[in-house]
Amino acid sequence: VIPMTSSFNCGPFSDDGDDAVCYEIAFTADGWNNARELCHIIHAEIASVHNDEENAFLRRLAESNGAKSVLLGGSLAGKGVFFGWVDGSAWDYANFKPGYPKKGQGNCLFMDTRTETGQWINGDCNTRTPVACSGSPLS
């Protein structure tokens, strides 16, 4: 992935030039815990998504990396029936596929990059899939 030009330094990560957040589609993870480890290795966290622009950018980035789906940083774990972001940021945006989240289908959040708008589904946290990581610009 070739980083886009921006007013801040994302180093080897990519950014959409709009929200001062850097993104990377990391290696394929063997589930949630491995995904967090992979993001932490590159000094990032599993990505949270807060608007249509971020979602669209992540979808394009994932698609350009050949990922049919990516793990996002949303989880039901410890939150009952409500999703929350692992980075602690506000749950202020959602893009679920119609009929999702489905009860009993899984506690982790995935983006289906094959849908035009990068819609989300919930699924098994042990699913082997690429992970979307995000972090702050380098100082």
TrEMBL record:
Keywords per UniProt: Disulfide bond
C-type lectin domain residues: 18-134
Pfam families hit by this protein: Lectin_C
Keyword Oxidoreductase: no
Highest taxon listed in the record's lineage: Eukaryota
Protein name: C-type lectin domain-containing protein
